[in-house]
Amino acid sequence: MKIAISGKGGVGKTLLASLLSRTFAESGYSVLAIDADPDANLAATLGFPHPEKIIPISEMKDLIAERTGARPGRTEVYFKLNPKVDDLPEKYRVAHNGIKLMVMGRTKRGGSGCYCSENVLLKALINHLLLARNEVIIMDMEAGIEHLGRATASAVDKLIVVVEPSRRSIETAYTINKLAQDIGLQNIAVVGNKVRSQSDNEFLISSLPGFEFLGFIPYDQAIIEADLANLSLLDASPQVTNEAKNIYHKLVPVTQK
Ligand SMILES: Nc1ncnc2c1ncn2[C@@H]1O[C@H](COP(=O)(O)OP(=O)(O)OP(=O)(O)O)[C@@H](O)[C@H]1O
Ligand SMILES: [Mg+2]
Fold first, then answer.
1. Mapping DSSP to helix (H, G, I), strand (E, B) and coil, where does residue 55 land?
2. What pLDDT, in 10s, does the model give residues 27-42?
3. Rounded to the nearest 5°, which phi and psi values hold at 79?
4. Nearest residue to 12 (alpha-carbon basis) of 217, 178, 171, 156
5. pLDDT digits (tens, 9 = 90+) for 193-237
6. How distant, in Å, are the alpha carbons of 5, 130, 169, 248, 255 from that of 155?
7. CA 13 / ligand 1 centre spacing (Å)
8. Which helix (H) or strand (E) holds 137?
9. Fewer CB within 10 Å, N or C, the chain?
10. Contact at 8 Å (CB) between 153 and 4?
């Protein structure tokens, strides 16, 4: 099963990615979590020791140069558009508590023609992970889906858009939905997070008619307090953990049909 998680900044993508990774791992699946958010913090949320020491793939300049033929930062005219990547997961993933993790790092932004070598390597790697790897993949993304393309759209079992009760997060959900339609990705579902009341719940449902909702995660101050106290967010709130388990149970039958 391949799950991609997107949504507006701060809605709870990383928390959901972490909770789902743990739930799949506890259920006996081999889980590879991918941090594809430039502002990577999945490792920390998953409780990896020394997350700051994990070097993102996009910063491995020698590797990028070796595989693409072009050193990041230099304007080479020619480089490989389909670099070898199949050996990279084994070499560059880290593992903790039964969860494997790869941190992608920052891609270069530019005009539509920005074929930078680091972007090419990351795209090839993500394509490989989604298309060729036989494990549960949970990808924590940013507010867009730029790592996905037509080739990978069919491999994504669920694109989960996390929303919170705010108009801007709903707008972002529609934008992501449009981007997904553009690449032919149909399997979109929504998770409501930071829900404080029944009326929050109703706001989300009425704002996103026609969307499949996988669940509603309550707002819990205990998560904020755990964050401030530098404690694990994953065990801070039984209600939040429980709803993540319900979401897991909705996801699992998808690939078992
Ligand atoms: N259900 C919740 N109750 C209370 N606080 C929450 C809840 N979900 C997330 N938070 C808090 O909201 C903040 C953002 O969560 P998180 O980092 O998971 O979001 P994100 O979408 O990954 O953000 P970013 O876009 O910055 O990557 C964190 O401080 C987290 O502790
Ligand atoms: Mg995040």
1. coil
2. 999 999 999 998 899 9
3. -155, 165
4. 217
5. 999 999 999 999 999 999 999 999 999 999 999 999 999 999 999
6. 14, 6, 26, 18, 11
7. 7
8. strand 136-140
9. C
10. no
* Cβ–ligand 1 contact at 8 (below 6 Å): no
Q: What is the pLDDT of residues 225-246, one digit of tens each?
A: 999 999 999 999 999 999 999 9
The residue whose C-alpha atom lies closest to atom 23 belonging to ligand 1 is 10
Q: Is 194 in the pocket of ligand 1 (CB under 6 A)?
A: yes
Is the Cβ atom of 203 under 6 angstroms away from ligand 1?
Answer: no
Using the mean position of ligand 2's atoms as its centre, give its distance from the Cα of residue 126 in Å: 18
Start-end of H helices in the chain: 13-26, 42-45, 61-68, 88-92, 117-132, 150-153, 167-182, 198-207, 221-228, 238-256
Written as six digits, the tokens of 76 are 């080479």
Residue 17 CA to ligand 2 center (angstroms) comes to 9
